[in-house]
Design brief:
- There is one protein chain.
- With 530 residues, the chain is of the alpha+beta class.
- The chain has 2 domains: 5-323, Rossmann fold, CATH 3.40.50; 354-526, Jelly Rolls.
- It is built from 13 helices and 23 strands.
- A hairpin with a 6-residue loop joins strand 9 and strand 10 (342-345).
- Helix 1 (5-22) crosses helix 6, helix 3 (125-141) packs across helix 4 (156-165) and helix 6 packs antiparallel against helix 7 (213-223).
- The radius of gyration is 24 Å and the shape is globular.
- The two termini are 47 Å apart.
- Residues 511-530 are annotated as: Disordered.
Length: 530
């Protein structure tokens, strides 16, 4: 069942209101200033930089105290493209800290947003070319060292930085925070459109910038779940995915730090973890509690922030050559959503040292199109509540309607279960229709029956023979969560979740079984800190 045009417009309007209320699209930008020589010390100078195709990119430049534009090229350079929908002053607090510690820093408003020219290309070839143009400008107008160049940023800035690292070998270090490596894996996982995430991006793009005709067409087809355009949408996304250029990124050899939040509702963590494992050069992966860009938010306000302090250490090591210990620490650093300090691992694969298996026996039959009450929450809001209040989406498991939700529960565990990594679901599905969608949720269930969401994921199928069973293997979103002693795990599968699209036709019914030759099961990775 495809979303109606009215529902898409309503969702976009609501998301636009949410965006404005959270301040992501309402921050003011500085007035345009004519291009001039950057001023020394840690006050920004607003300059114009010519981007690809002759457009104007609005930028800020900060120099170290005492630096002279006519001096020798003695300072490392850091380039920071802005996040989606944010103005060019986004990084001022962090740029000032970097300049005070001896960097030339150029931040610029990504093309198509605010006062920068051009159209929003969503990490397309023109965005990649812009990054190189900004580097060219900095080398021509500041005392930046051409052999010590870094890029970084949050969200959109992170994605552009990773893409640029695959196209410009001058980039020696990258800090990509709350970004994406695989755009399709991020917002089309399980072959299911992440409607709230896409609607949020589309609405904020319209509010703060000028989307390209191509982007508007892609979003229209994506939000309408137009399967006839699926191949076109996937090709568009792959062109804008750093994972597509992995070999070039590895060949260029930049030292890459990736950071993300467990509950990122726009760019879930799985795609970053997969990308990290395939990098060959110096690398670091950090996951923390929170939602999209919330782990970095306090740092953007100039407050103490682990993400940004680690990013500065990363640049110091690989652009200044400082022996500050970050290269000898365990390269994978995690914080559990349940609290506690950092847990270090030698690789993503070593995060999980064991597993618990929950059999999914019996036969469960579901009527589709009816909400059971189990869902993944609301874009941005859910992760923030989990980050600051330890309050994930809740359900009361005993009252979940079994006609709308398939439920399996484990026994009570006698010891704490540290969930670490990517939970996998294997089951056999039968549908009376060729297409369908369901959502799998894993809950931590307390003694009174209240379930706290640990992780979830959507799954959509097409072109199946009605009435014929087929196996499904589904990866849920990676996480770190501690299930207390005396609690149990519960798997809940239903067919309605406002976060996502769904393809269940009217009258569709789903059946979940566990054949003797291929038992259905949930495998929960377990581990702990080092």
């Amino acid at each position: 069942m495809r979303p109606s045009p009215t529902s898409v417009r309503t969702a976009s309007a609501l998301l636009a209101g949410t965006l404005a209320a959270t301040g992501l699209a309402a921050a003011p930008t500085a007035a345009a200033q004519p291009a001039r020589t950057p001023a020394a010390a840690s006050l920004p100078d607003f300059v114009d930089i010519e981007g690809a195709g002759g457009i104007t990119l609005k930028a800020n430049v900060l120099l170290p105290a005492g630096a002279s534009t006519g001096g020798t090229r003695q300072y490392p350079l850091i380039v920071l493209p802005t996040s989606w929908a944010t103005p060019q002053i986004e990084y001022f607090a962090q740029a000032r800290k970097l300049a005070d510690s001896g960097y030339v820093v150029v931040t610029y408003n990504s093309r198509g947003f605010w006062q920068s020219g051009g159209r929003i290309e969503t990490g397309g070839p023109k965005d990649i070319a812009d990054a190189s143009r900004v580097i060219d400008w900095a080398l021509a107008h500041t005392p930046a060292d051409e052999d010590r160049i870094g890029m970084g940023g949050v969200s959109y800035g992170a994605g552009i930085s990773l893409l640029a690292a695959g196209h410009d070998p001058r980039i020696k270090a990258v800090t990509a925070l709350s970004g994406w490596a695989d755009l399709i894996g991020a917002i089309y996982s399980g072959r299911t459109q992440h409607l709230q995430a896409a609607g949020l991006l589309g609405a904020s793009g319209e509010l703060t910038g000028r989307p390209s005709a191509e982007l508007r067409e892609i979003l229209k087809n994506f939000l309408a779940s137009d399967l006839d355009k699926e191949d076109e949408m996937i090709a568009w996304g792959k062109k804008r995915s750093p994972a597509t250029y992995l070999d070039r990124i590895n060949d260029n050899g930049a030292a890459i730090m990736l950071g993300n939040a467990w509950n990122d509702s726009i760019f879930p963590p799985n795609q970053y973890a997969d990308f990290y494992e395939k990098l060959r050069g110096p690398k670091r992966l950090e996951f923390r509690p929170g939602d999209h860009a919330t782990a970095e938010a306090t740092g953007l306000l100039g407050l103490p922030n682990d993400t940004w302090s680690h990013a500065r250490r990363w640049f110091d090591r690989y652009l200044k050559g400082e022996r500050n210990g970050i290269a000898t620490e365990a390269p994978v650093q995690l914080k559990s959503r349940s609290g506690g300090g950092y847990e270090g691992f030698a690789s993503w694969q070593e995060v999980s040292t064991g597993s618990r298996t929950l059999p999914l026996g019996g036969t469960k039959k579901l009527a589709t199109g009816k909400d059971s009450g189990a869902n993944g929450g609301t874009v941005l809001l859910t992760g923030v509540l989990d980050q600051f209040l330890k309050l994930p989406p809740l359900v009361y498991v005993p009252l979940l309607p079994r006609s709308r939700a398939a439920v399996w529960q484990s026994e009570r565990y006698r010891e704490k279960t540290a969930v670490r990594g990517t939970t996998t679901l294997h089951t056999t599905v039968t549908s009376n229709k060729a297409s369908g969608t369901y959502y799998a949720h894993l809950y931590d269930v307390g003694p009174l029956g209240t379930g706290r969401l640990i992780t979830h994921a959507p799954y959509t199928f097409h072109d199946r023979t009605p009435g014929k069973p087929f196996p499904v293997d589904l990866e849920l979103f990676s996480t770190a969560y501690d299930v207390p002693r005396g609690h149990r795990l519960a798997v809940v599968i239903d067919t309605v979740d406002p976060l996502y699209a769904e393809y269940n036709p009217d009258g569709a019914r789903l059946e979940f079984t566990s054949p003797a030759h291929d038992p259905s099961r949930l495998t929960v990775p377990t581990g702990g800190g080092r």
